[in-house]
Specification:
Elements: E1 2-8, H1 15-28, E2 33-40, E3 44-46, E4 49-51, H2 53-60, E5 65-70, H3 77-83, H4 90-99, E6 106-110, H5 125-132, E7 136-141, H6 146-159, E8 164-170, H7 175-178, H8 184-205, E9 209-213, H9 224-233, H10 235-242, H11 248-261, E10 278-282, E11 285-288, E12 293-296, H12 299-302, H13 311-323, H14 335-347, E13 352-358, H15 361-378, E14 386-390, H16 399-403, H17 412-415, E15 423-425, H18 442-451, E16 455-460, E17 464-465, E18 471-472, H19 475-488, E19 491-495, E20 519-522, E21 534-539, H20 540-547, H21 568-583, H22 586-601, E22 610-616, E23 619-624, H23 630-639, E24 642-643, E25 650-653, H24 661-680
Bound molecules: 4'-deoxy-4'-aminopyridoxal-5'-phosphate.
Length: 689
């Protein structure tokens, strides 16, 4: 199935003529071709049926095509639609365009005007192109100033991540009329030079100039000789469009290399679990190299709350990359870091005053642990260097963080000789939605009272224990913990790396309990998943404690400073992500997701093999009675068009906040089907059910 988007450097660049010529040239090559005008303005009516001028022109030239959304006034689509009380939306247009795709023919979608022609107040033609993600054919109107327009268009397409199949240069106006004041000789020189320069610039960018169409071959659909000449000039371009591209071999080789040489998380280097090749992603969908689409149920491990391809985020990174992608943070600072600090302090729970920017979630936990130790050390309590953590916890894969993970499901047995021995307390038994049972706090109380003298801090994931088992516990537990830590002089570290930025229905899970920790770690969704970044926030008391100038005990400085600390690109992405989040109705979205997930997963409850179903915020969990066979479940889900990767006993989803109802239903339906198939096949779903 081959399809292209034909766009121009401007209005009247010659798109319609080129499309008509291509239709003819393709049919001469024996290739079926069809053109589509997603939006046509300037339509007339014939017997109550709107007649689209471009479609009429293609037909007059012997081609086939249709217009999807038609308007009378010949002006920009957004205005033409508004004048008729309508509103164009990229999502609707894209859906209608996709319906025109058909295997066995070349489909040419012709835009209106240039790339930034508005479709509504927010979206432009380029957004539609981005959504369709088709290779682009750029028609350049050959006139004075066209090099500038062409190069700007190529840059914009490049920044939008769109592949450009080639350019066609087209003269649409008779020489002496167009560029008044220029002599015919000078004009011929200009037009010739345009072609030469465009070919050269195209070569640098890997974009061929496929044809140079002079005025005398300009478009007149009823003139067979003229169309003949036009089709002949476009024969090379048509051959390129007709070529069936087979990326199958390339993909096979890529996967083979990956399997042989690239280590993936938590799997064997020599006999790894299978992986899928992702070519791109848009909204809540992953686009695979083989053309399949999967609804993303994982938000790429909690982080892609705005989904993929969000304009604000992409542009923020592009802009920052052009300005300053990285500079050391030792002795230097920059606007993105300061701006991020400002935004975080506005959002974080009260009392957080100092921010340490780190590279990843695990490093943030290391930093928090070091802060707690240094805090007590500078107060003369070097003996307070152990940590209390919860069973079922997950805090990361570096050594310090790993020592705080559940000692059974974590990796303690593998690394027992090297890991610090922390104090583990049974996980809070009082569930989130049950009335609080104060006795659920007793194990923690006993442990802290017994070990207070040696404990630097308690580390918890507030309300939701994530990768350790997706357990939701009662917020009052945190209130009790906060009070006891204060009483015993133990710091409270909240690991909000997974829960932060709205996932549980509150900006931070600590807000469910109305508490502030002494140290808080955030990461994952901090950048909306654009790149890795984490932050460790501390209260004034913690920062002052560490900073107490005492040369004998470390001189009052915090001893950590990674190379990429405060990376400007990551900070700019984080600023954009927080702006996007705060500008969006995220609470409503998460609430709606919660309802939809709860409703969709309800049928799992009654199926054999299901131990529990629970939903909180935008997290939906089906706990199994037996551990899952990851490869089999993943395979089952992929066959149903969803990306869900279970682990241990849990099959769970946490879609991007922007996922549509339909997408969420696709996810929950797949989970119900998988559970039903597992029930019928000894606990493991079987593909093809
Ligand atoms: N803490 C929690 C609660 C997490 O969920 C994770 C990652 N799953 C981490 C820490 C570690 O973060 P990272 O993978 O970015 O190192």
């Amino acid at each position: 199935m081959r399809a292209f988007f034909v766009t121009g450097t401007d209005t009247d660049a010659g798109k319609t003529a080129v499309t008509a010529g291509l239709l003819l040239a393709l049919s001469r090559l024996g290739t079926e071709a069809f053109a589509v005008k997603p939006v046509q303005t300037g339509c007339t009516e014939k017997g109550g049926v709107p007649e689209a001028p471009d479609v009429a022109a293609w037909r007059a030239a012997g081609g086939r095509g249709e217009a999807l959304f038609t308007f009378r006034v010949p002006c920009s689509p957004h205005l033409a639609a508004r004048l008729e009380g309508a509103r164009l939306e990229v999502s609707t247009l894209a859906r209608a365009c996709r319906e025109c795709l058909s295997p066995g023919r070349v489909t040419l979608f012709e835009g209106a005007g240039g790339l930034y022609v508005p479709l509504n107040e927010e979206e432009s033609m380029l957004d539609l192109m981005r959504e369709l993600h088709l290779p682009v054919l750029l028609v350049v109107g050959n006139r004075l100033g066209c090099l500038n327009h062409a190069l700007l268009s190529l840059d914009a397409l490049d920044m939008a991540g769109l592949p450009v199949a080639g350019m066609v240069l087209c003269r649409t106006t008779p020489p002496s009329l167009a560029d008044a004041g220029t002599s015919p000789e000078a004009e011929a020189l200009i037009l010739g030079d345009n072609a030469a320069r465009l070919a050269e610039e195209g070569k640098k960018r890997g974009v061929p100039l496929l044809a140079d169409i002079p005025y005398d071959a300009s478009f007149s659909p009823a003139d067979a000789a003229c169309m003949d000449a036009l089709a002949a000039r476009l024969e090379g371009a048509a051959r390129l469009l007709a070529q069936e591209e087979d990326h199958g071999e390339e993909e096979k080789e890529r996967l083979a290399f990956d399997r042989a040489h690239l280590w993936h998380p938590y799997t064997s280097a020599l006999n790894p679990l299978p992986v899928l090749d992702v070519a791109g992603a848009s909204g809540a969908r992953l686009l695979l190299a083989d053309g399949r689409e999967l609804v993303d149920g994982m938000s790429s491990w909690w982080c892609r709350v705005h989904g993929y391809g969000n304009r604000r985020l992409v542009q923020a990174v592009q802009r920052q990359a052009a300005r300053l992608s990285h500079v050391m943070f030792g002795g230097l600072t920059h606007a993105p870091a300061v701006e991020l600090g400002r935004r975080l302090l506005r959002l974080l729970p009260p009392g957080m005053e100092h921010i340490f920017l780190a590279d990843s979630g695990s490093v943030a936990v290391e930093v928090a642990v070091k802060m707690a130790v240094q805090f007590h050390q500078s107060a003369g309590h070097g003996e307070k260097c152990r940590f209390a953590a919860l069973r079922g916890a997950y805090h990361g894969d570096t050594l310090g963080a790993m020592s705080l993970c559940d000692p059974v499901t974590g990796m303690h047995t593998l690394f027992s000789g090297i890991l610090p021995k922390q104090l583990f307390v049974e996980r809070p038994s009082c569930r989130f939605h049950a009335p609080y049972d104060p006795s659920s706090f007793e194990p923690m109380e006993r442990a802290l009272r017994t070990h207070a003298h040696e404990l630097a801090a308690v580390v918890v994931e507030p309300v939701v224990q994530g990768a350790g088992g997706m357990w939701f516990y009662h917020p009052s537990y945190l209130r009790d913990l906060r009070a006891l830590c204060d009483e015993l002089g133990i710091l409270l570290i909240a690991d909000e790396i997974a829960t932060g930025f709205g996932r549980t229905g509150r900006m931070f899970a600590c807000e469910w309990a109305g508490i502030s920790p002494d140290i808080m770690c955030v990461g994952k969704a901090l950048t909306g998943g654009m790149m890795t970044l984490s932050a460790v926030a501390a209260t004034g008391r913690v920062a002052e404690g560490i900073s107490r100038a005492d040369a004998a005990r470390g001189g009052g400085v915090f001893m950590h400073g990674p190379t990429f600390m405060g990376n400007p690109l990551a900070c700019a992405a984080a600023c954009a992500s927080l702006d996007e989040l705060c500008a969006s109705p995220w609470q409503d979205r998460v609430q709606a997701l919660e309802k939809r997930l709860a409703h969709g997963l309800e049928p799992c409850r009654s199926l054999p093999g299901v131990a529990d179903v629970r939903v909180l915020g935008a997290i939906g969990v089906m706990e199994r009675e037996e551990p899952v066979d990851v490869a089999a479940w993943q395979d089952f889900f992929t066959a149903r068009g969803v990306w869900i990767r279970p682990f241990g006993y849990t099959v769970y989803v946490m879609p991007p906040f922007i996922a549509s109802e339909e997408e969420v239903d696709t996810l929950t339906r797949a989970m119900v089907e998988a559970a039903a198939s597992a029930a019928a096949h000894g606990g493991t779903p079987t593909r093809g059910e």
